[in-house]
Amino acid sequence: MRKEKLRIAFIGCGQFCRSFVPLFKAHPAVEYVAACDKFRERAEDFRETYGMARVFDSFEDAITSDEVNSIAIFSQRDTHGRMAIEALKAGKHVYSAVPMALKIEEILEIVRLVRETGLTYMMGETGVYRPAAIFCRKKFASGEMGDMVYAEAQYNHDMKRLYHVFQYTEGDTWRKMAGLPPLFYPTHSTSMVLSAANTFATKVSAAGFRDKVDPDIFGAGMNYWDNPFSNSAMLLHLANGGAARISENRRIAWHFPETYISSFYGTRASYECSLLQHSYVKMDEKGFVEYTDVSDELNPVELTKHKSEPDYIKKAVNGAWGGGEAPIQAIGRLPKGFAGLGTGHAGTHQFMVDDFCQAYASGWLSPTNAWKAAQYNLPGLVAHQSALEGGILMDVPDVGNPPADWKTLSPDRAENVASYDE
Ligand SMILES: NC(=O)c1ccc[n+]([C@@H]2O[C@H](COP(=O)([O-])OP(=O)(O)OC[C@H]3O[C@@H](n4cnc5c(N)ncnc54)[C@H](O)[C@@H]3O)[C@@H](O)[C@H]2O)c1
Q1: 381-416: per-residue pLDDT in tens?
Q2: CATH code that applies to domain 127-334+370-395
Q3: Averaged pLDDT for residues 203-222
Q4: Closest Cα partner for 197 from 123, 260, 145?
């Protein structure tokens, strides 16, 4: 157990970070929070709004300061890899928003540094904590589903209504950032399937949809990556002998649910989701199947409350009542101080913050530690290249395992490992 409490500097006081500072501040393992942004006025605003201890002039100042022992990275997608590496080299623990990094070498370097230093690293990945991932993971781990055969997951995130999130920081050049290859941000989908099946991808092939609706965002010279694809799909060959299809769609006529497992098939039982209907089908010894509707366990409590209303589906597919927890999520293990502080992305925010703090305090690996995060992120980086080359089959780098004596926190635990005075 680590005795010292967390002293965190937040890098990137933008839109997403706002949902997290109050949670970190309220966590009993945290005693100090500081702010840092390229736009100083944003960091000053955070300091005033959330009562943060101070503002750092730069990322470099934050990671070299003795006042902090941890860095929480909430800057844009293309900065995470470099910042995590520099922070780990400076001896700081790291919480990073997704993705882990956009370059294979950076991911491998983060894994190497975590192994070498023993510092806590966690990628704040919502997918692992989503109800369908929890359900499939528990059923699969119990042995009830048999061997994992095939799964499908996707992140359908049509950007039409959301391009403004890039404009907030990127200004007039926002299109350059918005054209990120969808497969460079695959962890919402991959994490659900790979954590449920407790496996990783060994090979991948992919196909991309050459965009026709936003030619000023996708295409050669339009974005930092010369990326032509607004939607992409990849087929993962898994180490357990199964396969998975993962789709990352950014211009597709779909809003909610946005990140979900649509199927997870085993040799003895299977899960399927269609819109808001979650089904579990189990086969008995004689080959007859038993059907269970598990929708009320997996859909957010708020959503289920409205299910008999006439316009329920109409509102739900536009995101109504979708942000909060579902009964399957173990909110009982969260700190009491989180009550009423809000959450997001299907009730996952509070779990991510708690698990980083638990991992730090206990010294255990977080559920989305460097090895797991690498396994969730790497397939997409390789798959984008496959799509550019007509779908050739490519190897996914193998990051191996953490040291055998380094225990890992289960995201599904009902109890905490580290305890604090609350
Ligand atoms: N579901 C999810 O997990 C989810 C959802 C939204 C965003 N995100 C991730 O969160 C991150 C932030 O997204 P956002 O929408 O808040 O972006 P944003 O543009 O609103 O905020 C990013 C902030 O980082 C600051 N910044 C950039 N470089 C910096 C540096 N060197 N030093 C200090 N500050 C720096 C910017 O000035 C900006 O204020 C992104 O990487 C995104 O991938 C994840």
Answers
A1: 999 999 999 999 999 999 999 999 999 999 999 888
A2: 3.30.360.10
A3: 97
A4: 145
The 3-state secondary structure of 235-292, one letter per residue: EEEECCCCEEEEEEECCCCCCCCCEEEEEEEECCEEEEEECCEEEEEEECCCCCEEEE
Cα 330 to Cα 150: distance, rounded to the nearest angstrom: 27
Instruction: Report the residue among 11, 16, 37, 123 best suited for mutation to probe ligand 1: largest number of ligand atoms under 8 A from its CB.
Output: 16
What is the rounded distance in angstroms from the CA atom of residue 239 to the CA atom of residue 127? Answer: 20
Q: What pTM does this model have?
A: 0.98
Cα dihedral sign, 212-214-215-219: negative
**Hey, which of 74, 95, 167 would you mutate to test ligand 1's pocket, going by the most ligand atoms within 8 Å of its Cβ?**
74
CA 35 to chain centre: 23
Q: Where are the domains of the chain?
A: 127-334+370-395
Which letter, b or e, does each residue of 393-408 get, where b requires 16 or more Cβ atoms within 10 Å of its Cβ?
eeebbebeebeeeeee
Question: Ligand 1, atom 33: nearest CA belongs to which residue?
Answer: 37
Residue that is written with structure tokens 């819109």 in the block: 275
For 242, what's the count of Cα atoms within 13 Å in the CB-facing half-sphere?
21
CA of 75 to the centre of ligand 1 (A): 3
DSSP 364: P
- 8 A C-beta contact, residue 140 and residue 196: yes
Whole-angstrom distance, CA of residue 17 vs CA of residue 206: 32
CA 214 from chain centre, in angstroms, equals: 26
Taking the centre of ligand 1 as the mean of its atom positions, its distance from the CA of residue 292, in whole angstroms, is 41
Whole-angstrom distance, CA of residue 15 vs CA of residue 233: 28
pLDDT tens per residue, range 85-131: 999 999 999 999 999 999 999 999 999 999 999 999 999 999 999 99
Could you tell me the pLDDT band of residue 418, with boundaries at 50, 70 and 90? Answer: confident
Q: What's the 218 CA to ligand 1 centre distance in angstroms?
A: 21
Q: Report residue 111 as tokens.
A: 């894994």
3, 31 in Cβ contact below 8 A? Answer: no
CA distances to 10, 186, 343, 382, 384 from 25, in Å: 11, 29, 14, 37, 38
Q: Cβ distance 53 to 34 under 8 Å? A: yes
d(CA 77, CA 379): 17
Alpha helices for 90-185 (secondary structure H): 104-117, 131-141, 164-170, 174-178
